[in-house]
Fold this protein.
Amino acid sequence: MSGRGRGDSSARTGRAGHGGRAAILDELRGLAIVNMIAYHLCYDLVYMHGFDLPWFRGAWAGAWQEYICISFIGIAGVCTKLSRRPYIRAFKVCASALLITAVTLYAYPSQAIVFGILHCLGASMLIRALCGRFLGGLPPVAGFAFALLLALLTWNVTGGVLGFGSFTVKMPAFLYETAWLFPLGFRNANFYSADYFPLFPYLFVFLAGSACGGLAKRLPPAARRVHIRPLAYLGRHSLLIYLLHQPIAIALLGLVF
């Protein structure tokens, strides 16, 4: 996620300057924001206002949520690779994440967000910036494949398992008995976060996107032009919209109900 940066003017004009991102990335991120707003509206209706939406409690809603998050985190990884100010972007996202924790703990303690998607993104951005020299040296295809493999291996870490399919190993129980390893996915029975995105596996989703970042510089001109301006606008202001959309939705639904 990012605010307005050096590449935003190129997205508006249809040009991608040196180190900038193609407009298609803004539009894809804008699409993820639209889906995220719709998902959170459904969540608020079901869990805060008691609406009966049976489909939202089923597998389709889970797949929808996973698509939103993977696309959001993956695109953030691509854009971080293109950023000239990775530390500033990372600290901005981390500060926003801490703000969300403070507000939700104060206003909605039963729905507090302790380590949500912004926490995960901010930490992933810092790790990518700190390890950029090593990670940037990998060829894009090799980096993507390696990160994807690690994501698959750690996908079920929160459930106590490493691996996938029939190739699984049970993780040591002591990892899930601590109170401070939850950022990695090792949460104990007392941990709760209304929005929870641990670094395992989502750090590797982010790094898979980052591995593809260099390829974004070689996209054809058509991908660098704005095609759907509303989506491009939402994508350019994704961090601000993410911070504001839930309070606005909760206030509007509160007025209605």
In short: The longest helix spans residues 23-47. Strands lie at 161-164, 167-170. The radius of gyration is 19 Å. DSSP finds twelve helices and two strands in the chain.
